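Example protein was shown:

_____
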Amino acid sequence: MNTNREFLMRRLHSLLGIIPIGLFLTQHLIVNHFATQGVEEFNRAADFMANLPFVIFLEIFVIYLPILYHALYGLYIAFTAKNNPGHYSYLRNILFVLQRYTGVFLVVFIAWHVFETRFQVAIGADEADFNMMAEILSNPFMLVFYIVGVLTATFHLANGLWSFLVTWGITQSAKSQRYTTYFTLLVFIVLSVIGIRALLAFV
């Protein structure tokens, strides 16, 4: 692959992982968290999101196309990239490996989640409400699958945020990268708690 082209594709992959995908994941988890306040509150929040102006345009160009590019190019990176122990620490190389593994898992998880939810709504087989998620998560296997999916997604975002800040030259010193590690760990914990609380509220 042409070096300049690969550089631009990697930058785009990095950017899309945060904007809009990371922002969408955060918003999605927060909306789901309304389930902790009861059926009506969740349904009201979900209905508001489903009836945003130009919702189809937003879904295609702000969610699906960015996720599709990020997923496909991420798979390419996952199966071609190598560790860099001479430049990064042992921990960072472990996290890089986990980033690849979680990325591969998320391709499967997101595809299944979209099929179980958005696709069912599109064909008129179900409604995107509290009952939909409660029925899905009534299966213990699916509950575990979704918990792993949430933890995988929040880790992938948090660790990807660290890489984004380094890739785009925002954190260059060892000190700033160390502080960013603490910050991204906090992001992972907070989003994981929000996501798992939401899942358990459906059970």
About this structure: The chain has a mean pLDDT of 94.
